[in-house]
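Quick log. Single chain, no ligands specified.
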Amino acid sequence: MTAELVGTVPRMSALHAQQLINRSWARIRDSRLWSFQFVADAQLFVPYGITGGSVSATFGSTQIVADASAAAAFNAVATANPPLASPTLGVGRQIRVGSTNGISTPTGPNYNIVAWDGASKLTIDRPYGEATVSRAAYQVLKCYYAPPAPPPFRPPSLPHPRPFCRRAATSPLRPAGGPPGSRPRDGASRGGGPLERSWRMGHVVGAA
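-> predicted structure:
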């Protein structure tokens, strides 16, 4: 980028180009709270996996039916921290259903549990995409965690604006009764000297 500026802007030194790049990058960093600018400490509580009982799932359905043993295990953590079900990703838990050999966990993909009716039915976030199973092994676990709250954002300090000056209706810079912006008569002066004035951005610049 430095070489590009030097090659584009005539007579610009590489040192000045690097200064401009650094200033622009600093303005970008100060414009908002970017995720790479803060580090927050947080605690993640990982609950034990639930595997008691069995479940039944139908291809294309968003409901998974639990047997009595699984339902009892679900009710035990329904209002725990973290809860069993939540429509917000990172708050509730997940379930996966599939075959197991007694050593590995169920092999199916994770589905977010968005609701539990308290009796036998779990509602998942999308239709069940595997083959229909009955009384299958399962695992309820927590795979996703909400990120910690970022620190409060303090916008960068802005320079104080320059004072805005208005000319009085009658002043040495304008004859009495003259329209705004009218020029003084030739030879008008303050303290006997020639007078120069200009109007720019609401500022009056006078030199005696």
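Helices lie at 2-8, 14-30, 68-77.
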